[in-house]
Automatic annotation (TrEMBL), chain A:
Pfam families, alphabetized: MIR, PMT, PMT_4TMC
Keyword Ligase: no
Catalytic activity: a di-trans,poly-cis-dolichyl beta-D-mannosyl phosphate + L-threonyl-[protein] = 3-O-(alpha-D-mannosyl)-L-threonyl-[protein] + a di-trans,poly-cis-dolichyl phosphate + H(+); a di-trans,poly-cis-dolichyl beta-D-mannosyl phosphate + L-seryl-[protein] = 3-O-(alpha-D-mannosyl)-L-seryl-[protein] + a di-trans,poly-cis-dolichyl phosphate + H(+)
Organism (species): Strigops habroptila (Kakapo)
Protein name from the UniProt record: Protein O-mannosyl-transferase 1
Documented EC number(s): 2.4.1.109
Main location: endoplasmic reticulum
UniProtKB/TrEMBL annotation, chain B:
Membrane topology annotation: Multi-pass membrane protein
Protein name as catalogued: Protein O-mannosyl-transferase 2
Family matches, as SUPFAM superfamilies: MIR domain
Domain MIR intervals: 376-432, 445-501, 506-563
CDD domains cross-referenced by the UniProt entry: beta-trefoil_MIR_POMT2
Keyword Membrane: yes
Gene3D superfamilies with a match to the protein in the record: 2.80.10.50
Biased composition (Low complexity): 7-18
Example GO molecular function: dolichyl-phosphate-mannose-protein mannosyltransferase activity
Family: Belongs to the glycosyltransferase 39 family.
GO biological process, one term: reactive gliosis
Length: 725, 792
């Protein structure tokens, strides 16, 4: 019964002092003087505004990546008690007292510091010596660019941390002995791999490439598991399902949950509302929701509506008409119908109101009970203020001559009959008898006579059309395009029988009651789609660079300059490390090719297990470098030096691997070996020396004199700021 | 004849009918019905396309008497594609046990007959109604025109390499077309012009595709049914037929592509007898075809990639073969690679070389090119020059009598970069502070030096190169560059500092070799060309901006190219002439730029790569309205969807086969053979499909449906192989019971029948149709518009 008491309770604690010391050094190097400078540094101006918006719970869309990274930064602000009141408008602006600079910068700095022991562990898990592992960690520790990037409110260090964590936990998982399958630690490391991967992807989309690399590696390893004929089919299936669950299902679920938290946190409307659809906007507090709250849901005959184009490009706009007519002749000599203009207008206006009318009845009010309009019904659209009917006919549109002109019909008695019947087609219907719903339904208006579709052409009209956007009838309506789809935004049931009354009614704000909310998945899909498709036009920046410049570090980025002295912070790497990393990658590639060809000819230069280590280490490190670097060549966005840092981290890990391999297998004699060791020591001191030399521009202090700054300009292409005396 | 055949069949039941070696033999030769396919096709020229021989049901009826004892396998081999039916209760009862356990490949004698049938059907389907419609269809307007240019020896520029257009020109020339038809727009009537020759040439190459695919599949799978299935798919695919019938580059490209694949496959199977005659033959044919494919369209690059990967794989195999010494491996490297690579290179270079030659020739006539002319070496004040941007495919600094439209910067005269020679490219170098007439002979020549501040006056319009702090039209962060002033009088924003890369102050500036940078004095920005294409108002020339980011990229460097100064002595610049390699590189950059410049316009609904395999939307080749003669490029939906399903099926089969092998499951030798065919042969084809399809997802240019057709060829071959394997597997699974053969035969027959029936339904798409649209119930195509996105 009490047998367990027979043995003494023994706690054996094994502490790897290497890891402890490295962590400590990492923390010191990254956290030292963290709140200096107390000013906005480089991209803090960009991420800071999102932190503020999180604090104020205001919705935003950032096309640079998913929200997890922003949320982590905001967490720092939350812990520091930041109220979000700071105007992030210019780099170098002094922080006001309410900004908790230290806690805002804490999380990225911690992530950066933890990369040091992670690097150590990865090399150990790759079965390299502790000496090599220590070398890797020290190289990461003394890498100026990683230090700079970690010490501010930026996301790269967080990304690198999660990437390294994912790699490490996968290696831990893989190195577990075969008999420990499905044990606690087996599950722990496997699940941690998946979680770290999804966090990496959640911080920046670049994390996706490392995720794919790990998936490929896991697939290859699993292929060997398949070949293991001692495993029964059932346990093979279990292995497969466990990996699928941990490496695919959980990451996807976590990724979605980031958005869930994001959308739960941000429930107020804000500056980016208009990018989203009306339905989305209506789900946010304030903004459109305030207007649409309490509108009737179902559009009925007699409804007064505003119609918004779903495309939202070049800007959001509503179907609009005004008393002016199309000019009889355009500048290029073509003629028009001279009827009332119909345009798309980007501002709220009383002229955006239209009344849905039943062609068979005269009245413009909603009957009691209301008769809802359904998919396929034929309606007329009456412009509220001018009481003219939306019409299109075989006349070329003003700017898009291949499409039909859309006008509000004026009867000139010139044998040009009105063609004002439109069929309502609900695009996102579930059945063919769906009712046309406010905000939710996306509707196409198909002209009954010509089967043209009401479309926003995107061109803006000349002076006579007040630069509003052109609306046309598209005859060749190929497939689905958002420019042909409209949705009702504001809506009320019309009650006024007389035109005068109606005008008053149109001017009054809508007021009634029902609320409608989008499901989370619909919101998620829309937001995700917007993030992926939103494009910023600016493709050039003073410090932008091309991917080719990064390998040789031909560029730098000036992050901050002291307002009076010449203290400054630059993103500048440790030149020796960068060069050695390149050389290591080159040596690795050449050696591998050489071994590979020789092995094919059955000549084995190194023992089989050393070869396996060599291949797996290279696969992770060189592969990690390649997947984090090469995709940039195909990208059209603005690129900066800091985009290279994840790739660089992997490349640095390769240096000790190559060094140890050379010393173990290529230095055959003792003399050679000791010479090589001496060389390594000399080289390492030069790394330390360069770190010390550049630390003033890494940490921003002390302020250097002009000559010292000039001496730091080791490459002509570096842009070191020197004040004019 | 039917009776006779029946008897002969039942007499020689086992060997001749079930497996089908003998059909080419005596029993068929006397048959009057042997040649009918051609006659049938000729009779199809009647306006009503739905004629009896095509419909399966009459065929079925007629064939029944002879059906006894025929297997599906044999039918096509016997040259009677329509007689498929009669499967076989009788056969089964007569000789069930004599059938082999699985349908082995028929003896070699059946193959020529099958091949003949395939060729016959293929040619018949492609040449049927070739001359219809007698007007320009779709892209004929481009390629026909370019063919005419070759006949007329007119120089032109196009985004595609020249071989395909030269071949079209040659075909036209040989068939008596005189190159006088203007090919202005689709729908123009050909009238008396002889266009059938050119169409016939394309249709000929298009027909060759089918036998090429047939032979490839036969070689890969060693299975006649698989090859026949592929052939039927391609013969009866409306898309392939349509695309082969007009003056287009695609049939030419696909011909070379399939030729390359076939010779690669053949070459692989001679790998055990290297350096034999057939090895050499196929090896060199691969090179020729690759060069041909590359010379027609850049898409040919993908097949080069395919062959390259395959060769690398082979070499790797060879390297592991320890019975070969390293020396012989090296020889192999040499011989394996050299013919393919060198031939590809040489032939490819020859093709464009001719194109370039004509370009040089042309420019010599006009006399404004670098060749054989001499210019003064150093630039001086008063010189008339052209300035060329140093970026690849950069243009000449250009201006013309047009203003920037309202709302885009200041409303001043446009300055652009223009790719072609033009008088508007000429600029005069003037001093910034004096306006003396440089042509005055009394003034001594003064050279421009590094660091000088100059003014550039546009010769035609006498306005100065000017910049100011307005945003540039496309690159928002740069400044706008305009031409400003009247008769050379402007303001201080016209001053530019001229500097040469890598020179000190005071040095002279050389023509051509001096890399010049122009810095705007007032704002400190640099003159550059962003390489973006201006919209219509800028005549689609390239944007010129003044960039505030002082980086030394080719975008912001210029050189002087033409240089006219009567006061200076000319030197010959032959030394400075670019080498052939440079011209080649440059011209390719221009072509690639032209290609990527075909960007979709805003809001334009374009064809997306994911549309293609599902046959989402076709292309109108001719006609829109009810009264028009309408031809619509659309794949036979049954075939395309079959292909699509097969890709999924193939992946499933591959994975299960690979896993089974890896798990060490004991397989019979037949199963091993099957999995080898699927993994090796099917793998090659699958790779081809991927290489010809996936890259399109990354292309920014406008894409069209017909870009998928090379990939579709691979997909069809994959279908042949996969279904043959699948049916064999099913048959094997059921064996040794007698139903095995039946399942195999019935499956194969069902597929072929399905294909033929669907072709019967959809053939008006290719051969043209007049009358009501498919939405009208009275149309022959009524009810066939299965997807709303189809437009017929």
């Amino acid at each position: 019964m009490l047998g367990f008491l027979k043995e003494p309770v023994v706690v054996t604690v094994e502490i790897n002092m290497n890891v402890m010391v490295l962590t400590l050094m990492g923390l010191i190097s990254r956290l030292w003087g963290l709140s200096y400078p107390r000013a906005v540094v480089f991209d803090e101006v960009y991420y800071g505004q999102f932190v503020s918006l999180y604090m104020k719970r205001i919705f935003f869309v950032d096309d640079s990546g998913p929200p997890f990274g922003h949320m982590l930064l905001a967490l720092g602000g939350y812990l520091g008690g930041f109220d979000g009141n700071f105007l992030w408008n210019r780099i170098g602006a002094e922080y006001s007292m309410n900004v908790p600079v230290w806690s805002l910068r804490l999380l990225p700095a911690l992530a950066g510091a933890l990369c040091v022991p992670l690097a150590y562990q990865i090399l150990v898990e790759l079965q390299f010596s502790h000496c090599a592992a220590l070398g890797a960690a020290l190289l990461i520790l003394l890498e100026n660019s990683l230090i700079t990037q970690s010490r501010f409110m930026l996301l790269e260090s967080v990304l690198i941390f999660f990437i390294l964590l994912a790699v490490l936990s996968y290696l831990k998982f893989y190195n577990l002995k075969k008999h420990s399958s499905f044990s606690g630690s087996w599950w722990f490391w496997l699940l941690l791999t998946g979680v770290a991967c999804s966090c990496a992807v959640g911080v920046k989309y670049m994390g996706l490439f490392t995720y794919i690399l790990l998936l490929t590696t896991a697939g290859l390893h699993f292929w060997h598991v398949i070949g293991d004929q001692n495993l029964s089919n059932v346990s093979l299936m279990c292995h497969f399902l466990a990996r699928g669950l941990a490496l695919i299902i959980i990451p996807v679920a976590m990724y979605v949950s980031f958005f869930y938290v994001h959308l739960t946190l941000l429930y107020r409307s804000g500056p980016h509302d208009q990018i989203m659809t009306s339905a989305f906007q209506a789900s946010l507090e304030g903004g459109l929701a305030r207007i649409t709250q309490g509108q009737p849901l179902e559009v009925a005959y007699g409804s007064q509506v505003t119609l918004r184009n779903v495309l939202g490009k070049p800007m959001q706009c509503w179907l609009h008409s005004h008393t002016n007519t199309y000019p009889i002749r355009y500048e290029n000599g073509r003629g028009s119908s001279h009827q009332q203009q119909v345009t798309c207008y980007p501002f709220k206006d009383v002229n955006n109101w239209w009344i849905v009318k039943d062609p068979g009845m005269q009245q413009l009010v909603v009957s009691n009970p209301p008769r809802p309009v359904r998919h396929g019904h034929i309606v007329q659209l009456v412009h509220g203020i001018t009481t003219r009917y939306l019409n299109t006919h075989d006349v070329a549109a003003p700017l898009s001559p291949h499409s039909q002109e859309v006008s509000c019909y004026i009867d000139y008695n010139i044998s040009m009959p009105a063609q004002n019947l439109w069929r309502v087609e609900i695009v996102n219907r579930e059945s063919d008898t769906d009712v046309w719903k406010t905000i939710l339904s996306e509707v196409r208006f198909v002209h009954v006579n010509t089967s043209a579709v009401l479309k926003l052409s995107g061109a803006s009209l000349p002076e006579w059309g007040y630069r509003q956007l052109e609306v046309v009838g598209e005859k060749l309506s190929k497939g689905y395009h958002q420019s042909m789809v409209w949705n009702v935004e504001e809506h009320r049931y019309g009650k006024s029988l007389e035109q005068k009354e109606r005008e008053v009614e149109l001017h009054s704000p809508t007021q009634m009651d029902i609320s409608k909310n989008l499901s989370f998945m619909a919101k998620f899909t829309e937001l995700q789609w917007k993030i992926l498709t939103l494009k910023n036009e600016d493709t050039e920046h003073k410090y932008s660079s091309s991917a080719l410049d990064w390998i040789t570090m031909d560029t730098n980025i000036a992050y901050w300059l002291h307002p009076t002295s010449s203290a400054q912070i630059h993103l500048l790497g440790n030149v020796v490390t960068w060069a050695s990393a390149n050389v290591a990658a080159l040596i690795y590639t050449c050696l591998s090719l050489w071994y590979l060809i020789r092995r094919r000819r059955k000549i084995y230069d190194i023992p089989e297990d050393a070869w396996q280590l060599w291949v797996s280490a290279g696969g992770i490190c060189l592969g990690g470098w390649a997947v984090n670097y090469l995709p940039f060549f195909g990208m059209e966005k603005t690129l900066f030096l800091y985009h290279y840092l994840p790739a660089l981290t992997f490349q640095i890990l390769l240096i000790p691997i190559v060094l140890q391999h050379i010393s173990d297998h290529l230095c055959r004699s003792v003399l050679l070996k000791s010479m090589f060791t001496a060389l390594i020591v000399a080289w390492f001191s030069s790394v330390y020396f360069v770190y010390c030399t550049f630390s003033p521009v890494t940490y921003g202090e002390p302020s250097l004199s002009v000559t010292e700054l000039k001496d730091l300009r080791w490459k002509d292409s570096w842009n070191i700021l020197i004040r004019k005396q | 004849p039917w009776v006779r055949q029946k008897s002969s069949c039942s007499a020689t039941l086992r060997s001749s009918c079930s497996v089908g070696p003998a059909p080419a033999g005596p029993s068929l030769r006397p048959q009057p019905r042997q040649p009918p396919p051609l006659q049938d096709y000729i009779s199809m020229r009647a306006p009503r396309p739905a004629h009896p021989p095509r419909t399966p049901s009459p065929g079925l009826r007629r064939a029944r008497p002879g059906a006894a004892g025929h297997t599906a396998l044999r039918m096509p081999a016997a040259g009677r594609g329509r007689a498929e039916p009669g499967l076989p209760r009788q056969r089964e009862s007569r000789a069930p046990r004599r059938l082999p356990a699985h349908p082995a490949a028929p003896p070699a004698a059946a193959r020529p007959a099958a091949l003949a049938l395939v060729i016959l059907l293929s040619f018949a389907s492609r040449f049927h109604r070739l001359a219809e419609p007698p007007h320009v269809c779709w892209d004929e307007t481009h390629f026909g025109k370019m063919g005419s240019y070759y006949i007329n020896r007119t120089f032109f520029f196009d985004v595609h390499p020249p071989l395909g257009k030269m071949l079209i020109g040659l075909a036209g020339y040989l068939s008596g077309y005189d190159g006088t038809f203007p090919f202005q727009k689709p729908g123009d009537r050909y009238e008396q012009h002889n266009y059938v020759g050119m169409r016939g040439f394309c249709a000929f190459l298009g027909s060759c595709l089918v036998p090429l695919a047939y032979l490839t599949v036969l070689e890969l799978s060693k299975s006649l049914p698989a090859a026949l299935l592929t052939a039927f798919i391609l013969i009866f695919d409306t898309g392939c037929i349509t695309l082969s019938q007009y003056i287009l580059l695609d049939p030419i490209l696909m011909f070379f592509l399939m030729g390359a694949v076939l010779s690669m496959v053949k070459c692989n199977s001679c790998a055990d007898r290297p350096f034999s005659a057939s090895w050499w033959f196929w090896m060199s044919l691969t090179g020729v075809n690759l060069a041909g494919a590359m010379g027609v369209k850049f898409v040919g690059l993908f097949v080069v990639l395919l062959v390259g990967l395959n060769t690398m794989y082979d070499l790797w195999d060879l390297l592991g073969n320890l019975s070969l010494s390293l020396v012989s491996v090296r020889t192999f490297y040499f011989f394996f690679d050299s013919p393919v690579i060198s031939q590809t290179a040489v032939l490819y270079l020859h093709g464009p070389g001719d194109g370039f030659f004509s370009s040089a020739f042309q420019s010599q006539l006009i006399g404004n090119n670098l060749h054989n002319i001499s210019v003064p070496e150093h630039v001086a004040y008063g010189s008339v020059v052209t300035m060329k941007n140093l970026r690849m495919a950069g243009g000449y600094l250009h201006s013309h009598w047009h203003l920037y439209p309202e709302g885009i910067g200041a409303r001043q005269q446009q300055v652009t970069a223009y790719l072609h020679k033009d008088l508007n490219n000429l600029w005069i170098i003037k001093k910034h502070d004096s306006d003396t007439d440089p042509s005055d002979p009394s003034i001594p020549v003064e050279f421009v030096r590094h660091g000088d501040i100059i003014r550039l006056e546009h010769k035609e319009t006498s306005r100065n190169l000017h910049s100011h702090q307005h945003e540039a039209p496309l690159t928002r962060k740069h400044f706008q560059v305009t031409a400003y002033g009247i008769n050379g009088t402007g303001d201080s924003n016209d001053f530019w500092r001229i500097e040469v890369v890598g020179r000190q102050a005071g040095k002279l500036i050389r023509v051509l070799r001096g890399q010049v940078r122009l810095t705007h004095v007032a704002t400190g920005c640099m003159l550059g060309s962003s390489g973006k294409i201006l919209p219509k108002w800028g005549w689609e020339q390239l944007e010129v901006t003044c960039t505030p980011y002082l980086k030394e990229t080719p975008n912001s460097l210029w050189n002087f190219e033409d240089h006219i100064n009567p006061k200076l002595p000319n030197i010959s610049l032959d030394v400075l002439k670019p080498s052939f390699a440079e011209i080649l590189l440059e011209s390719h950059m221009v072509m690639i730029q032209g290609n990527t410049a075909l960007k979709p316009k805003d809001n334009e609904v374009t064809s997306k790569p994911w549309h293609w395999p599902i046959n989402y939307q076709g292309l109108r080749f001719s006609g829109v309205n009810e009264t028009d003669y309408r031809v619509y490029l659309l794949g036979n939906p049954v075939i395309w969807w079959l292909n699509l399903v097969t890709i999924g099926l193939y992946l499933l089969i591959t994975v299960s086969a690979a896993v089974a092998l890896k798990r060490g499951v004991q397989l019979t030798s037949e199963l091993k053979d099957l999995s080898r065919v699927v993994l090796r042969g099917g793998g090659q084809i699958m790779l081809g499909w991927l290489l010809h399809y996936l890259p399109f997802f990354m292309m920014g240019r406008v894409l069209y449906f017909h870009h998928y057709f090379p990939a579709m060829l691979f997909s069809s071959m994959l279908t042949g192989i996969t279904w043959d394997t699948l049916l064999k597997f099913c048959a094997m699974f059921l064996s040794p019971s007698a139903t095995a053969r039946k399942v195999y035969g019935a499956g194969f027959l069902a597929l072929v029948l399905l294909i033929i029936y669907s072709f019967y339904l959809f053939h008006p798409l290719s051969y043209g149709i007049i009358g009501p649209m498919a939405s009208d119930p009275s149309s022959p195509m009524a009810g066939l518009r299965w997807m709303d996105s189809w437009e017929f």
